[in-house]
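Researcher: Sequence recovery benchmark, item below. Answer with residues only.
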């Protein structure tokens, strides 16, 4: 989920999606929000990140659960 508000980050988190904050002058405080997985300044910054593979917080938690067994 890519967005620029706390509502966007919350919606993505609750949907089980990785969340990407498109940072601007108004939302910089959301960089450290618990539901924000990644911060970018421009949408095209996301291309390389997605090509390399990106795992959000939700996916990391799922991986930890699988490692237990």
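Model:
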């Amino acid at each position: 989920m890519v967005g620029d508000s706390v509502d966007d980050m919350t919606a993505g988190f609750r949907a089980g999606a990785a969340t990407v904050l498109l940072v601007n002058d108004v939302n910089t405080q959301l960089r450290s929000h618990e539901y924000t997985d990644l911060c970018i300044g421009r949408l095209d910054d996301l291309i390389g990140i997605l090509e390399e593979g990106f795992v959000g917080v939700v996916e990391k938690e799922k991986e930890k659960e699988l490692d237990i067994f």
